[in-house]
Each structure stands twice: as C-alpha cells, then as structure tokens.
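As a warm-up, study this chain.
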Amino acid sequence: MQLLWRLTKQFNGKLVIGAVLSLSLVIGGVALADDKNGEGAPDPAHTGSTGTRLYQPPDDLLSPFGDGSEGRRGGCTGDAKISLTALAPQSHVGQTASTHPTFAWFVPDTQSYEIIFQLYEYGSNGSRNVIQEIPLQSSPGIMTLSLPKDKPGLSIGQRYGWRVVLLCNPNSPSSALVAGADIDVVQTPGTFSDSLDPLERAKRYAEAGLWYDALAEVLASGNEASILLEDLLKDLAELENLQAAENGSEQGQRLTQIVEVLDR
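Now compare it with the structure written out below.
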C-alpha cells in the first residue's frame, strides 16, 4: 500500500500537505480538526464557487443496491458530532471510468482503530459476494484507498459495492461503525484528453457525472485543490438533501458537517 498524503491543520487553521509512508495499495488521509460547532445546516442555494453546480450526476440516477451507512451515529467514543461517512452518492449510484478506482471516506475519531475495507460484487439474487477485503488502521479525517494497478481491475458495465467497517471494539461486533456505497464502472467519455492538468481533469470528470474520478483527482492534488474539494462535497450534499425527504438519508447533513470541518 502507499500512503500518499495527509492534509493536516496548520496553527492558522489552513490545510497543508504532509507526505507519508509508502505501501503497495494507495491510501491517504486528510486530518480532522476538532468539531466545535456541532451539526451544520446545508445551504440549498449552493452552486459552487464558479456559480454553477460542479458535479452533474448521471442522467439515469439509478438507485443503489446497497444501503449505505449503517450502525450508530458518531464515532467510536460516542462524543463525535460527525459519523463515519462514505464520500460517495447515496441517493444515486456514483460512477467511475477507472477499472482501478479510488474510494474515500471520513473518519471522525482521532484515536486509531482497525478498519476493514471490503469490495464486493452482487449476485443474481442481490447478495453481496466479497471479492476483496483489506485490513487498515484508521486515521482521522479523509482516508482514501485505490485499487492497485498490478491487480485485475473492475469490469466496465458492472456495478460493485464497497464499505468500510470501523472496529471500535473487536470483541464487540455490534459496536462497529459501517459506511459504504455502490459504484458503477462505465466507459471513459471520448472527449477526454490526457493533456489536461489534474484540476481541469477533475472538473471535466465532475461535469460528466464521474463522481469517483473527480474526487480522486482532487484528493491526489492535495492542498491546492482544497476549494475544489469543498465545492464537490457541497454539490453532493445539495443533491442528497433534495432526496432526503423521500429516502430519509442523512448523507447531505453529514457531508455539510465535513465541509465545515475542512473549512476551519
């Protein structure tokens, strides 16, 4: 695994990049500041820093097979204002054009716990068949994991599920926190150019509805993409809140809280 980078808080409250350890899979972290303001209300008028919504979801807005986040709210210690959260759509299925995509989630606890990443495919009856299971150690804030390029990738045209299980107490399975989402693997749009710089490529991905690829480019760009990261999360929070009355999801509220933490 390769622990690419971690964004940490400077004393003046801005995010900075710290380089960290190399391993064989790609994982990274964005450091978590203390959440002092509690839960925040989403801004329904948000249209991104450019005046338009950056992330444009797929036209079909297919419903996920999986059930997203599970378990109790908050962190392992019970005093966190933010829950373990998959940084991915819950009201529709996020897309990727990569056969080795990057997955990202937010960990509320400053203390490190064992965390298990699971990737699974769906059986004909909707059952989950785990195809990869990777043990990790949690770090506070945003963590990422990319499927290694030297291993077989995901199949285009297929839907997969993923989740992370935070083991608060290995001897008490009921205390675990769980978050995840579905992901559809699609063809790369023919209009994309490899000559684009990472941030422009992230914007193109977002406009094309490729959530996972847009987020991966932004996270890999580190501190220089912090505003773009917040815009992406705000856009998704807005979309999730539009569906919250129908599906009861708290994803939009959670994403808004995460943006507030990153913005301090």
